[in-house]
Amino acid sequence: ILQNLKSNASSKLVITSAAFQDHIMRSLLHPDFSLSDPLRRHSRGKHPQQEEREYVLDPAPPPLTLAQKLGLVASPRERLTEDEWTRVKERSVQQEESAQPCAICREEFQLQPQVLLSCSHVFHRACLQAFERFSGRKRCPLCRREPYETRVISDAARLFQHRCATRIQAYWRGYMARKWYRTIKKTICPKDKRLRRQFFESRLQELNDSFVRYCHTDTEAFLSDIDRSLSSSRRVFQQLERKSVSEPQENDWDRIKSQVIQRGVWDCPICLTALSNLSLPTVSARSNHQQRRPTVLLSCSHLFHQLCLEAFEAFSADSRPLCPLCRSAYHKKPI
């Protein structure tokens, strides 16, 4: 019996030693193990799916060693199922992890690769890999949970694309609204008085600009021709007016005198001094104390001192001067 017990104990010891040796060989001396980077990611080819497709970034766990099967060494945790990953992602969405900057570099995710940890925290993929190389272990930078699983997601990229599309649409709507307003502003007259005046001024300016633009002559010469035409027309009308003026008769002079008396103006418009003449009673009544000066009556019913009118005619450039007040041709009569 003792020999059997000794043989069973020795065989159990041999099996345990073999199990530990197998565990050490397969875990600590793994072919992919590197002393310079103990957490170096296992080599894996490019993921066959698109970048927007979510997938677990961690490699598949190796098969259990003999020591793990015998319970001598703790077995690794089972990988999260799709349902568990769904719950983790829902918790991350509720916390708005993808809408906030990366906790490591404090920059927006935008379109850069993004990873979701099993603790529901989100980081840049490159930032998390740099953090793992720096720390030498897989520990969440926020909650310090270890170990964790990583899953590539694209929530932040979709949010960034949505913001960009919203901004582009807002800019486009603003451009169309401004274009529509400029069209309405050019075609519909406003109700405000000041704006209405500006509207008609701008339309008139546009018409003038278009006229000048399509006019194939020199603008200065064109305006000079207009000035010369106006001067010639003015001279012609003045000559016709002078020819049409006939000398008043005695009855006409009496009527003109009555108009002067009704107007009641007894000052010379040129020298601004009082008029005096015995032919007009009202004038002589005012001017008995003054020195009498010759007065002339024009056919346009205006009174002047004779000397003042002669001086005005001497300084006039026209061959036949016009009345200093009404600018019309006249005949004069001393009174």
UniProtKB/TrEMBL annotation:
| The entry's keywords | Metal-binding, Zinc, Zinc-finger
Q: Name one Pfam family in it.
A: zf-RING_2
Electron transport recorded as keyword = no
Instruction: Spell out the molecular function terms from Gene Ontology.
Output: zinc ion binding
User: Domain RING-type: where?
Assistant: 102-144, 268-327
UniProt entry tagged with the keyword Lipoprotein: no
Highest taxon of the source?
A: Eukaryota
PANTHER family per UniProt: RING FINGER PROTEIN 32 (PTHR14991)
Name of this chain's protein: RING-type domain-containing protein
Species in which this protein is naturally found: Astatotilapia calliptera
